[in-house]
Amino acid sequence: MQKIDYYNIDELFTIEEKLIRDSVSDFCDREIIPIISEHYRNATFPMGIIPKLAELGLFGITLPTEYGGSGANYTSYGLAMQELERGDSAIRSFVSVQNSLVMYPIFTYGTEEQRKKWLPKLAKGELIGCFGLTEPDYGSNPAGMITTAKHANGKFILNGSKMWITNGSIADIAVVWAKINDVVCGLIVEKDMRGFQTYEMKNKLSLRASITSELIFQDVEVPEENILNVKGLKGPLSCLNQARFGISWGAIGSAIAVYESALNYAKTRIQFDKPIASFQLIQEKLVWMLNEITKAQLIAYRLGRLMDEKKARPQQVSLAKRNNVRMALDCARISREIHGANGILDEYPVMRHAANLESVNTYEGTYDIHTLIIGEDITGFSAFR
Ligand code: TGC
Ligand code: FAD
């Protein structure tokens, strides 16, 4: 069942979509929620769930079965992301990266050899991938990247660094974006290649159950057969469309988690001899959350159908990511308020989601960058140049 369904959205999904959603939802309740607080406290990723995620068919959800994918549609992908992020953004992040930022570019821009070599193992969770676009000095503006690869003796010599890379130090392969003759290109870098090092970034106060790393490349020799067949920034940005789509659904999952927690708490917490849910101000907060979650669900649903019909424009994806993540962040803050002091304890999921959503609001294009992408679309003027 759709957890929060004020507008009978459940009726709009096909039987297959509902089956995928419900199996991921059960998985979240059984395998993620009971263990996630401890991983969050210890800043560890629950590695044990990787084979289980693979078994559920969550790596390569939209990719053809011949490469190990599940051959499902984008709406199913979105519903799966929603249910994973209801558990924790770290788990959705892991699955987003594997699907949208590693398997998607290899499927879309890879040779048949590359597809056969990497995709089935990534689908089984035998290999983990990461995506290196952001650099220490180039976040919102990846066009400025200074990581380069130079062609020499049938190889590309890669130099530079990437920062804030999800799964970086647990990844077997990295899809790395670097300039070759001043043009952005994609390379598959393998973890054992000489000169490639990763460092886990410690002391994060957000997404603590996700591994985030720095990647360093010092004269790494990448063979020609590891180059992806795409040139220009549209290569990485097309992958981001996929991931941003998943995030726009995932954020709804976080919002549902904090809303449900607030509603339950408000019904049982007694102050002034009454449940706090009976006070008008608390009701207004709960209604605001429900209202915003419902709007976000309708945006995500329509975007899913547009993606399935191959009609979605990147700017429409931006609107969904921008709206739904900010909505979830606002819900988390309001939910924390309703929980009073208890809201700061990790016995409740609220602060964990609130802290996670700060990262989700920033990565895959900040709230403001998406504002400017949509601003350019409707005015015709770019604020970037
Ligand atoms: P601009 O001149 O607009 O475009 C350059 C070329 O790219 C094309 N393009 C797109 N193609 C596909 N999808 C999109 N969304 C596209 N946006 C633009 C464009 O048509 C053009 O193609 P061509 O053929 O003419 O060359 O590029 P710009 O340099 O002005 O930048 C635009 C801007 C600022 C919107 C872009 O750089 C941007 O989106 N910046 C945000 C960076 C970002 O989102 N980084 C995310 C890093 S990965 C990450 O955060 C993973 S978190 C994972 C997790 O844990 O879940
Ligand atoms: P900056 O670009 O320095 O922006 C700082 C502020 O300035 C922001 O508020 C921004 O909105 C604003 N700003 C910037 N330009 C403009 C403008 N033109 N107009 C108005 N305001 C502007 N990257 C990867 O490549 N792979 C990953 O796997 C990955 N995982 C991540 C995981 C985590 C936990 C985090 C936090 C980040 C991750 N990132 C990853 C990086 C992420 O994509 C970047 O942090 C993001 O794109 C923003 O870049 P920045 O942090 O350098 O901020």
Strand content: 15-25%
Mean pLDDT: 98
Share of helix, binned: 40-55%
Level-1 CATH class name of the largest domain: Mainly Alpha
Query: What composes the largest sheet?
Result: 4 strands, mixed
Number of strands: 10
Poorly predicted runs of 5 or more residues:
none
Spell out the helices and strands N to C: HHHHHEEEEEEEEHEEHHHH
Rg calc: 21 Å
List of distinct ligands in this structure: 3-thiaglutaryl-CoA, flavin-adenine dinucleotide
Overall structural domain count: 3
Q: What's the arrangement of strands in the largest beta sheet?
A: 1-4-5-8
**Assembly level:** single chain
Enumerate how many helices there are, as a single number: 10
Name the structural class: alpha+beta
Structure description:
- This protein folds into 3 domains: 9-123, Orthogonal Bundle (Butyryl-Coa Dehydrogenase, subunit A, domain 1), CATH 1.10.540; 129-231, Butyryl-CoA Dehydrogenase, subunit A, domain 2; 235-379, Butyryl-CoA Dehydrogenase, subunit A, domain 3 (Up-down Bundle).
- It has 385 residues and is an alpha+beta fold.
- The mean pLDDT is 98.
- The protein is built from 10 helices and 10 strands.
- Residues 97, 131-134, 139-140, 164-166, 207, 212, 359, 362-364, 366, 368-369, 372, 384 line the site of flavin-adenine dinucleotide.
